[in-house]
Design brief:
By secondary structure, the chain is of the alpha/beta class. It has one domain: Metallo-dependent phosphatases (Purple Acid Phosphatase, chain A, domain 2). 21% of the residues lie in helices and 20% in strands. It is built from seven helices and 14 strands. It is globular, with a radius of gyration of 19 Å. It starts with 15 loop residues before the first helix and ends in a 9-residue tail after the last strand.
Length: 324
């Protein structure tokens, strides 16, 4: 994956907990590389199949150990079989997170999970030196109107057990972010569980916001993976920017400030170097940018609303500080 803005890696230190595990790890199990993509929105985007194909081709070339989609993938409809087939063209392990829109049309989380081939709406898997936990933010509960964005008591207890029992470093994947109550409604309760095992957690990856940022909360690093496709706009910024026939076929597209090329990322954890490196992508807008269309800095801050997933490199010791 090429990016002219990429910085050279630096040698970074492991936490004591991760260093202890790494010292006993088999040489072949000290590195894992995986592809991340979020919010493709097949049921909104006219070129979603091509965006997934670009991702799977890049991850095949990068020899990723697995790929994972962070939610808002597609409805479990027969019309989306070609889109699912494009995803399944990746020969390695493939994983999914359930987004709030993945049950649109009256489907249950279990039905959508079955369509994707997920073992359950939330589950665990292992790859090389890490334990991977996939959460579902779509449990019943909370007071939010519209889409549920909640993690129920049963799933929360499961998460606490998994973290307590984990003998390896942990990645966590979820659609709605946990670093703010604007994502998961009971995010404070979930973060309290994470904080107990913060030394084990390398990062929490999420989508949903269609933004590009990284933040540390209570010693846990949260990385927002931008949408593969667009920023959602409302109010005066809603306008048609594609040919009329495209908007007729995709009526929600008028809400979208679309990225010209698909966004996705390649993550590499290297225990020998003590690094987590995110290699992202940058593109530009199709048509006017969100502010030219009439959105505001309040609704879409420029410091994290951009057609990009930033390159990042991390020391695995949870650093002090917050957003950057």
């Amino acid at each position: 994956m090429t990016n002219t803005r990429r910085q050279f890696l630096q040698q970074l230190a492991l936490t004591p907990a991760l260093m202890a595990w790494a010292a006993h790890a088999a040489p072949a199990a000290r590195r894992v590389r995986f592809g991340l993509i979020a919010d493709v929105h097949q049921d909104v985007m006219p070129d979603a199949v091509e965006r997934i194909r670009a991702f799977t081709a890049a991850m095949t070339k990068a020899q990723a150990d697995f790929i994972i989609h962070l939610g808002d993938f597609c409805q479990p409809q027969p019309r989306n079989q070609a889109f699912l087939a494009a995803w399944n063209s990746f020969a390695g392990a493939r994983h999914h997170v359930l987004g709030n829109h993945d049950m649109d049309g009256g489907f249950t989380p279990a039905q959508t999970a079955a369509f994707y081939g997920m073992p359950a709406p939330y589950y665990a898997f292992a790859t090389g030196p890490v334990r991977d936990l996939v959460l579902s933010g779509n449990d019943p509960g909370g007071t939010a109107k519209g889409y549920k964005r909640f993690i129920g008591a049963e799933q929360l207890a499961w998460l606490e057990r998994e973290l307590a029992q984990a003998a390896q470093p942990v990645f966590i994947f979820i659609h709605q972010p946990l670093d703010t109550g604007a994502g998961i409604e009971n995010s404070a309760a979930v973060r309290a569980v994470l904080e107990k095992s913060a030394a084990k957690i390398i990062a929490v990856f999420s989508g949903h916001f269609h933004e590009d940022y990284e933040r540390v909360v209570q010693g846990v690093r949260h990385i927002q993976i931008n949408s593969a496709s667009y920023v959602w706009l409302t109010g005066p910024a809603v306008r048609e920017t594609f040919p009329p026939e495209v908007h007729k076929a995709q009526p929600y597209l008028k809400h979208c400030a679309v990225y010209r090329e698909p966004l996705f990322a390649l993550a590499t954890l290297d225990l020998d170097r003590g690094t987590l490196v995110i290699e992202g992508r940058r593109t530009d807008w199709i048509g006017p940018d969100p502010w030219q269309r009439g959105t505001t800095e309040k609704d879409h801050p420029r410091d994290r609303t951009r057609p990009a997933i930033s390159d990042r490199q991390f020391q695995l010791t949870p650093p002090a500080g917050s957003a950057r």
